[in-house]
Write a structure and sequence with these properties.
alpha+beta, two-stranded antiparallel ribbon, globular
Length: about 110
């Protein structure tokens, strides 16, 4: 899976980090929400541990992340949604957005 394909993959999240909207969000939409909200979120208010994305980014960017980035997909009403690995996927895309080449990052994998 490429970073572009991951960015467009819908997730099971309809709300994220206090942002509520109708419909499932793609990884790209969630990353935009994360980028905006993580700057002002107090870690004490991070009940969903969404700020762990930063730890994942550091680990991936410094080659401390030693396994593939696995995104688990579920099929609902004939459509595919990412149901697990969403925060890992956000970290991967954040690394790409920061200019890190995909060949320096762990491989992306889908699991059903």
């Amino acid at each position: 899976m490429s970073a572009q394909e991951l960015a467009q993959k819908p997730t099971l999240f309809e709300s994220f980090m206090g942002h509520v909207d109708r419909g499932q969000k793609t990884f790209a939409q969630l990353l935009d929400i994360y980028s905006e909200r993580s700057r002002t979120m107090d870690p004490a208010e991070d009940r969903g541990d969404d700020l762990r994305v930063e730890r994942f980014v550091r680990d991936m960017a410094t080659a401390r992340w030693r396994s593939d980035v696995v995104i688990r997909i579920g099929v609902f009403d004939g459509g595919e949604l990412a149901i697990d690995g969403i925060h890992r996927g956000l970290a991967y895309l954040a690394c790409i957005r920061a200019g890190i080449a995909p060949e320096r990052l762990p491989a992306l994998q889908l699991a059903c």
